[in-house]
Amino acid sequence: MTLLAYQVFQTVVEQGSFRKASEILNLTPSAVSHAISAMEQELGFSLFARSKSGISLTNYGEKLLPYINAVLNSEESLKQAVSQLNGLQQGIVKVGCFSSVCTNWMTDIIHSFAEEYPGIKLEIYQGTYADVAYWIKNGIVDMGFLSVSSAGDLPIEPLCKDPLLCVVPKTFSKAKASEKMTIEEMRECIFVSQMESTDADIQKFLRENNLNVQSAYHVVDDLSTIAIVAEGFGICIMPELVMRDIPYSVDVYPLEPPACRIIGISVLNPDFMAPAVKTLYRHVIEKYKKENISDVG
Q1: Keywords on this record (predicted)?
Q2: Rounded CA gap, 31 and 10, in Å?
């Protein structure tokens, strides 16, 4: 099998379509189909399940994907190392991020990084914590932003603390006349809850404080959660970073006791990064790592 065949396979997976992959690779659809068929014949098993609704990876294809990504990432690392030896800073870095980092940090990172390293291109993938962790582990992205509590067994470099806040509708009647929201005040409240893959830190906070949340509202994205709260259907816990420039009319209270999530940057192997990946990794740390993050337990 050739690197081109691996590139075809990876692109078909990313695009979910032979036709879209052919457009990206500037190949004919028949050439893409032939490359996949030749791979399957050589391997002795099918990589994709084909149906009227589209294509999906077979179990064998799922297992093979991380290895093919690793081969292609190694090729990219080799190109970057050669460029570095020639005194150039070139390459492509694929970055995974969750919603609030994407909306608050990524444009600034793209601009500031391009000014210093115009030869290195960034590709951004937005998803949930679970998506980003999966992408890192399977070589789909080179590095990703996660919270420390959602990283699992992935190595992560903590960058900053992001305080958790209680978000309530404007009509909310607070039991205590204070500027903070206590655990006891929240016990009797209806919550708008997100899936744990989206808000692992909030679910952790609820468990640690024995807040047994009962909710009829199970949503994925931050804005939908806050929109439901704004209409008076419950309260929610949100990181401070999410609440910047929110278009909905709500009230926000710091938590008592205080709580936060720790945002960090993660790579599969910190000791082995391609030159361009290492350059971006250092750039992010210099830009966002806070001095007081060292006391994170």
Answers
A1: DNA-binding, Transcription, Transcription regulation
A2: 15
Neighbours of 240 (CB within 10 A): 16
Residue 181 has pLDDT above 90, yes or no: yes
Whether residue 292 is predicted with pLDDT greater than 80 in this model: the reply is: no
Nearest-5° Cα angle at 187, 183 to 190: 125
Report if residue 20 sits inside a domain.
no
How far is C-alpha 206 from the chain's CA centre?
22
C-alpha closest to that of 266 among 98, 122, 73:
98
Work out how many domains the chain is built from and give that number. 1
pLDDT tens per residue across span 277-287 = 999 999 999 99
How many whole angstroms separate alpha carbon 274 and alpha carbon 100? 27
- Judged against a pLDDT cut of 90, whether residue 105 lies above it is answered with yes
**CATH for 227:** 3.40.190.290
Distance in angstroms (rounded) separating the CA atoms of residues 166 and 254 = 6
